[in-house]
Write a structure and sequence with these properties.
InterPro entries: QueT (IPR010387)
Keywords: Membrane, Transmembrane, Transmembrane helix
Pfam family, one: QueT
Number of strands: 0
Protein name: QueT transporter family protein
CATH class: Mainly Alpha
Order of helices and strands: HHHHH
Oligomer: single chain
Radius of gyration: 15 Å
Number of domains: 1
Largest sheet: none
Low-confidence stretches: none
């Protein structure tokens, strides 16, 4: 039982670290924040399909990423919560391959536009931001996440083995 706990903590830490590295990398291309964003690290939101350790890992990874990339405090809070909600939803739908990527798309498409409009005072309407954030999330979570799912599914017994 103790080894399982250590494994989950290690998996969560690794997922958080990978999320941060991917977000910092894509930030160099100005794609990790703003009205038009394709945060490739959001592809990792498919990982709760394989391990519940991904839920805290994704939350911490998003929180740390938002802190190190200079996000406003309310963005750190609400952006991280959107990722947490999405990760929990993905875990809940883990048995449904085509539905599992949807919760982070929905959570971010609903929450992030309000952050853009009211925290960053971005010019534009909530529906416009929902469209732009939603498109980025579909690319990250559904397209890239589905590719990641397909690859990891082949090796899940080795990567996410719990005994």
């Amino acid at each position: 039982m103790r080894n399982k706990k250590v494994l989950r903590i290690t998996q969560a830490a690794m997922i958080a670290a990978i999320y941060v590295v991917l977000t910092v990398f894509i930030s160099a291309f100005n794609l990790a924040s703003g009205a038009i964003q394709v945060r490739i690290s959001e592809a990792l939101t498919i990982l709760p399909v394989f391990t519940p350790a991904a839920i805290p890992g994704l939350f911490l990874g998003c929180l740390i990423s938002n802190l190190v990339t200079g996000c406003m405090p309310l963005d750190v809070v609400f952006g991280s919560l959107a990722t947490l909600i999405g990760a929990c939803g993905t875990y809940a739908l883990r048995k449904h391959k085509w539905l599992a990527p949807l919760p982070p798309i929905v959570a971010n498409t609903i929450i992030v536009p309000f952050v853009l409009r009211y925290v960053y005072l971005a010019e534009g309407t909530i529906p416009f931001f929902m469209l732009t954030v939603g498109i980025g999330e579909v690319i990250s979570c559904y397209l890239l996440g589905s590719i990641l799912h397909r690859v990891l599914d082949r090796y899940k017994e080795h990567i996410f083995k719990e005994d």
